[in-house]
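can u do me a favor
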């Protein structure tokens, strides 16, 4: 079915929300893969598996760079020297699953809404799905961002309230999405 001019307003309302979601998804994925790589490399160097910047080091770093997000999380989980809690691993996997839903499925649902009823916009069910997935990504991002800060800065993070971080980022992402106006 063709897009019609009257569909643009509905799609534009979602566009800002979706753009912010995509930015958050990419930030989570990049931060997670980066810190997993650094943590695994640090353990390998500490265990004298290879010398810093040796061919083996560079090969291992390249291997870690090529992992998909699930592979990075699994590599983190398998590295017993890092002692990452099962709770954090599960949180990272929920973030990954929500990232995948947003990237691969959320836009389809919006197009289905536009095409199925040109009088309706995003309904409460879709809003709840987006909010749930958003929360999963934010919480997973908080964990990997904390690890990244503490690894690179060599000090504990003073930003330690995951709930405040979740609220702050949720408010930003959903700021253009007025539930009472847009959801019918």
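np, heres the sequence
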């Amino acid at each position: 079915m063709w897009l019609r001019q009257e569909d643009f307003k509905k799609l534009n309302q979602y566009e800002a929300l979706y753009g912010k979601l995509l930015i958050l998804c990419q930030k989570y994925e990049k931060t997670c893969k980066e810190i997993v790589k650094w943590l695994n490399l640090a353990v390998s160097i500490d265990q004298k598996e290879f010398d810093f910047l040796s061919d083996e080091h560079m090969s291992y770093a390249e291997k870690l760079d090529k992992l998909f997000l699930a592979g990075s999380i699994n590599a983190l989980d398998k590295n017993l020297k890092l002692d990452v809690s099962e709770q954090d691993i599960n949180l990272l996997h929920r973030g990954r699953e929500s990232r995948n839903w947003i990237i691969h499925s959320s836009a389809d649902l919006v197009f289905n809404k536009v095409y199925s009823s040109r009088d309706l916009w995003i309904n409460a069910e879709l809003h709840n799905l987006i909010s749930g997935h958003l929360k999963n990504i934010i919480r997973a991002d908080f964990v990997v961002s904390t690890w990244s800060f503490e690894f690179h800065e060599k000090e504990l993070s003073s930003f330690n309230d995951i709930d405040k971080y979740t609220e702050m980022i949720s408010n930003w992402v959903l700021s253009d999405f007025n539930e009472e106006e847009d959801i019918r």
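Residues 5-46 form the longest helix (42 residues). hope that helps!!
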